[in-house]
Amino acid sequence: MAKEINLRYGCNPHQIPARVFVDAGNLPLQVLNSNPGYINLLDALNSWQLVRELKASLGFPAAASFKHVSPSGAAVAAVPLTDTLKEIYAVTGRELSPLAEAYARARGVDRMSSFGDWVALSDTVDVLTAKMLAREVSDGVIAPAYEPEALEILCKKKEGKYVVLQMDPAYEPGALERREVFGITFEQRRNDRTVTCDDFKNIVTQNKELPEPVIRDMLVTWITLKYTQSNSVCFALDGQVIGVGAGQQSRIHCTRLAGMKADLWRFRQHPRVLSLPFRPAVKRPDRDNAIDQFLQPDVTEAEKAAWGEIFTEIPVQLTHEEKRAWLNGMTGVVLGSDAFFPFRDSIDRAALSGVKYVLQPGGSNRDDVVIQACDEYRMTMVFSGVRLFHH
Question: Is 12 a catalytic residue?
Fold first, then answer.
């Protein structure tokens, strides 16, 4: 392993020179193929921490799809994929290993945001997972190891330009971390606090129900939020993230964004969406864009006219009533927040997307109002006492 890696440029092409390095010893990662960029490595190191912690906490293979230092999706292979999920994740008929299933969930939940993603995988990359990666529009991958044939597949992707990184799974950074902004160095203790089940003991609502699958999903939200740009809110179900609202200045805007993505995930499973009459030559990314547009309420007639190149016949959009009826079938969703809710508005919005369990630090002057809102919806809410800001 090298002491430093010279990069093509920093965040933007005009920011040169650029490199990553360590003051002592060697870097804990190796470049096995191509040349990573500055943002690639930011995504790689954040996403690696997420999947490593998911695997350590839950014991299942874990995967994350990252874009601009926040997850588009994250998941563990805890629940088998249904036939419907296989269809919307575009893996119907494919043989899937547990690691490949985790990646199918992480990559498939928000396919538009994951377009051109960075991938993190907790386990040795097998051939089945490599074949999935090979067909997706993606910039690179980080994992602890690769089967020889899997590495060969990945090294051919993007005409040999796909970035493949191998991370030392035993690496542990020091307790302190530093960063420089405008010539000034910041230093703090690294966020090395791990999640435990004790974080879920303070149930503050009348409803005290907290089944084991919900604890699993709370772990997924807790760990995902830890590596998501703040402010952030995360929706999870069946061991996978189904919506992330990241980097917003307002808590309600985080919730609306995460809820919108969770709703789109649910709508993509609607029979009318599954049966959209795509022309055979339309590629998967174009289908993803068309599905997203089809589900929007304000599509213009001009936009609908352009659907003639996508569909064999112009489909009829779902009505508001049809959408609401379909969303009413989604339940048991876990909502996690990286900081307290200052108002009840996020709870009201979350209820529209099937949220029944809420995880947040607590500590607002209006905690009583938020608790009352959860009681009205018969939600279970946990105060973890742990804020998870990440910048």
Answer: no
